[in-house]
């Protein structure tokens, strides 16, 4: 009887060992994966904090540069206004107190780090026409008759010629001036040697600081 009982027990290796090996590998793999996840959770935010600190430093540096540029720009603007320059939109304008030829006017504006006024649109023309003065503008056809260009070399497109102008009377009217009129179409062509006052223009943006 006793022998029969022992004979009913399974023979050979205990089948619990293979199962225990699989569980061990699963647990080990899971722990490894958890370590990777934990490292990601810790390292990635740390990297982001480093990047944020670097970006913050760069922002602060750029802000200081901008503040300095604004300060320099305001100081320059105040000085020019005291010197007689007028501010309109993004440009400064200076009306001379002396008279000279068109070439003398051009040279004087260049000495002021500016140029003879270039009129780009109706609003700018109205601003200058309201001065009710006769002065040189930066427009000429000296290189080729009838081919009017501004002092920066751009071709004339928007035009505000007075009635019947330009006429090129005498064949030597190659420079443009404005004339006092009750309307904005007040340009006239005259000899470039005519004594006139003039208007200089220069940009007044932070990009020019």
Structure description:
With 209 residues, the protein is α+β, with helices and mostly antiparallel strands. The chain folds into 2 domains: 15-83; 85-208, Mannose-Binding Protein A, Chain A, CATH 3.10.100.10. It has 4 helices and 8 strands, in the order H-H-E-E-H-E-H-E-E-E-E-E. Strands 1, 2, 3, 4, 5, 6, 7 and 8 form an 8-stranded mixed β-sheet that branches. A hairpin with a 2-residue loop joins strand 1 and strand 2. The chain is elongated. The termini are far apart. Mean pLDDT is 82; it is low at 1-19.
Chain-wise SSE layout:
Blueprint: H1 2-7, H2 16-82, E1 86-88, E2 91-95, H3 102-111, E3 115-116, H4 122-129, E4 135-140, E5 149-150, E6 175-178, E7 187-190, E8 197-203
Parallel strand pairs: 4-8
Antiparallel strand pairs: 1-2, 2-8, 3-8, 4-5, 4-6, 6-7
Mean pLDDT: 82
Kindly estimate the percentage of residues that lie in beta strands according to DSSP. Answer: 15-25%
CATH topology (level 3) name of the largest domain: Mannose-Binding Protein A, Chain A
Class from helix and strand fractions: alpha+beta
Helix content: 40-55%
Q: Identify the CATH homologous superfamily of the largest domain.
A: Mannose-Binding Protein A, subunit A
Beta-strand segment tally: 8
Can you tag this structure with a few keywords?
single chain, 209 residues, elongated, 44% helix, disordered N terminus, alpha+beta, eight-stranded mixed sheet
Summarize the structure.
The protein has 209 residues and is α+β, with helices and mostly antiparallel strands.
